[in-house]
Amino acid sequence: MVKVLVAAPLHEKAINLLKDAGFEVVYEEYPDEERLIELIRDADAVIVRSKPRITRRVIEAAGKLKIIARAGVGLDNIDLEAAKEKGIEVVNAPAAPTQSVAELAIGLMLAVARKIAFADRKMREGVWAKKQAMGVELKGKTLGVIGMGRIGSTVARIAHHGFGMKIIYYDARRCPKEIEKELKAKCVSLEELLKEADIVTLHVPLVPATRHLINENRLKLMKKNAILINTARGGVVDTNALVKALKEGWIAGAGLDVYEEEPLPPGHTLTKLDNVVLTPHIGSSTLEAQERAGVEVAGKIIEFFKK
Ligand code: NAD
After folding, report:
1. 25: pLDDT confidence band, cut at 50, 70 and 90?
2. How much distance in Å is there from the Cα of 205 to the middle of ligand 1?
3. pLDDT higher than 90, residue 307
4. DSSP assignment of 54-99, as one string?
5. Substitution candidate for ligand 1 out of 50, 51, 101 with most atoms within 8 A of CB
6. Ligand 1 pocket, 149 CB below 6 A?
7. What whole-number distance in Å separates Cα of residue 267 and Cα of residue 277?
8. Share of residues in the chain with pLDDT > 90 (%)
9. What is the pLDDT of residues 266-299, one digit of tens each?
10. What percentage of the chain reaches a pLDDT higher than 70?
């Protein structure tokens, strides 16, 4: 009997799909490395989310493992090289969180541009901060999308059609002509994007080429009234440089869902700044995205063992 270790919360529909396919499902939420090593010994498949980490040690302990499934997009918690060496297939659900992450990016833009989180904090303190909460509109502003893939182009679509924003983008590859035409989107260099955009939103994966893509020099290229949104991966931004930029007013504000260190350490400088809105990596935390991701990877696992 195929044994599937579900090591992270998974939508009920997905669990039922696996059970209906005749698989044994063992569920334990986010086991630590030692516990995972115990649990994975006789598993044929494992399902994770952004946690737990499937390290080389875990992979080496897995005697029967044939497939690792990530119910979501990013594979940075999986040692892909170790999996490849052992011939273990790795699958994910790349499109499942697209809409949810895009909507969060838009939410962060609005929260920073209209100082929503700041105003809410003040209200709770009993302060009517009407003057301090003066904001800016999104309409007519230029949105710079770094990484015009699934999420980036969805953000661009909402921003263009919903808010009348102008779209410029930077990507290693030119995006399809139909998308450029639909969104009147212009492909520019990174430098040009940073200099021109009123809002910069990050949607590149974290790979060696994108680590600290947004560093001190590049933050200095941005407009003083610009807003940076990061719902991609924390490592794409040099946090120390960003803190400096926010404190010294090189840019106006930032909306962040992801951090170089997660969870963000309590009392981190970012939590002391009023011009930044922080969420705890909730980009794909919607009922719809979880359901899509779970069902998609369950389907891929079933398909895999059928073959
Ligand atoms: P995608 O693959 O569709 O798009 C990524 C884009 O980045 C592609 O167009 C690609 O060409 C471009 N790119 C890659 N490397 C580049 C480089 N070095 N320079 C310039 N461009 C480069 O991926 P997606 O589905 O849009 O997801 C984007 C990222 O969002 C994921 O990698 C993931 O890290 C992040 N994400 C975050 C959450 C969250 O909870 N906040 C959830 C899902 C995904």
Report:
1. very high
2. 4
3. no
4. B-HHHHHH-SS--EEEESSS--TTB-HHHHHHTT-EEEE-TTTTHH
5. 101
6. yes
7. 15
8. 98
9. 999 999 999 999 999 999 999 999 999 999 999 9
10. 100
Give the per-residue pLDDT at 76.
86
Task: Please tell me if the CB atom of residue 234 comes closer than 6 angstroms to any atom of ligand 1.
Answer: no
Q: Report whether 291 contacts 284 (CB < 8 A).
A: no
Is the Cβ atom of 284 under 6 angstroms away from ligand 1? Answer: yes
Output the CA 173–ligand 1 centroid distance in Å.
12
- Residue 257 has which token pair? 């869902």
By the 10 Å C-beta count (0-12 exposed, 13-18 middle, 19+ buried), 32 is classed as exposed
Angle at 193 between CA 189 and CA 198, to 5 degrees: 175
Q: Ligand 1 centre and the CA of 244: distance in Å?
A: 26
Nearest to 80 by CA among 89, 71, 158, 72: 89
Question: Using one digit for the tens of pLDDT, what is the confidence trace for 194-206?
Answer: 999 999 999 999 9
Here the tokens at position 49 are 């989310």
Residue 100's identity, in one-letter code, is S
Here the tokens at position 295 are 């069902």
Does residue 203's CB lie within 6 angstroms of at least one atom of ligand 1?
yes
